Input
Amino acid sequence: MKRSAICGIICVWLPLLLQAQTSDFGIDVPVTASGGAMYSDRLQLRNPNASAEAAGFRTMLYPTLQLGPHWFAYSAVQVYYDPYFYYDAFSPEHKVGTDVIQAFAGYSFTAKKASVVIKAGRLASAFGSFPLHYDDTANPLLDQPLSYITTLTIRPDQLPCGTGDLLQQHYGSVSNSCGGVPGRNSGMTPVTLYGLPGVEAGISVGRLDARLQFTSGSPANPQPTAAAGKYLQWTAGAGYTIRQGFRVGVSGFRGPYLDQAVAGLLPAGTTVRDFPASAVAADAQWARGRWSASGEVQRFQFASPNFSVAPSITASYIEAKSILTPRLYAAIRTGWLSAGKVVDRTGVTADHFAPLLQSYEIAGGLWIRRGQLLKGSYEWLKSVATPGNRLNVLGVQYVITFHALNLAFHSI
Output
């Protein structure tokens, strides 16, 4: 594990351990370990001589502390070998790594009829409803919705000169002409599935729930804690349970996303805070009997100094799941991501600055026994920039869950 990951978890847990002298507390370490294999021509896009087959693994560790009735700490640490996820196939180099997806201290209490939770540390984004579905048992399919995995044709460390510059970019390979970090690189993802440093307050009253989060950096471009002074970002969300099994929600964020690498290229008297990323979203979850469904609609805008109508993205998905037998289920997800209209400062216009992406995935899951899940899926990814079936993926995952440690104590 990376030294920074270990230090981050220790810094979250140590202050709480010191307060546990007179409280009941427990230690729990659930584990989800997954192995996966895929077949796709995506693996050959960069190197036609490469194999169209690949395998990887992923282990999620969830060290958790409960310290009396109020204090707790939670971590989600990922250890992986790529390529594992479908989107890893676009960059098929084999590598081992770790990520701290969440690591925070929390305090919960009840005030009259309201339940309140306050968190501080590394947090999943409060935008949208999918970021908390990072465990392979929480996602009935193998891939993730497009807005959480697609690298846009926009980079935070480079500035496009205008509409013509944007139209020359490609998903996964971006090199703008008006300055910044030189060379080609991937663009940014609209919403990260990895944690952001920050604080969050959540409240639940009856059928209503709400959350407010302040983080260092945008969900599209997270920043280290030390950069919070320049990159303070707010994200808010709320939901209402219409009836049991049916909830609707909204969320949004706004804050700077451009790197300091382009700060000297901005108009005189402006800073990166004058060119924010902003987004709004609506989501819904429904379940009844053996059927369940969920979906989101999102719109993102990325202000840029050379545009009067800034680049924007609209994305949505809907997924459904049916429990066929107590051990067997089937699921489907369809989604799309569309680049919006842009107008640069010289008046040059484009209705869409990047190709439309559409995805369709069908999957099945079999619970072999308690804590053991076998999943398989086939995904169609459609883009006019890459016709045919070269972006499609066939994949399988084997997932096991267990508790590496589960202890409860009472201090004397």
Notes: Residues 1-23 have pLDDT under 50 and may be disordered. The helical segments are 3-18, 163-167, 228-231.
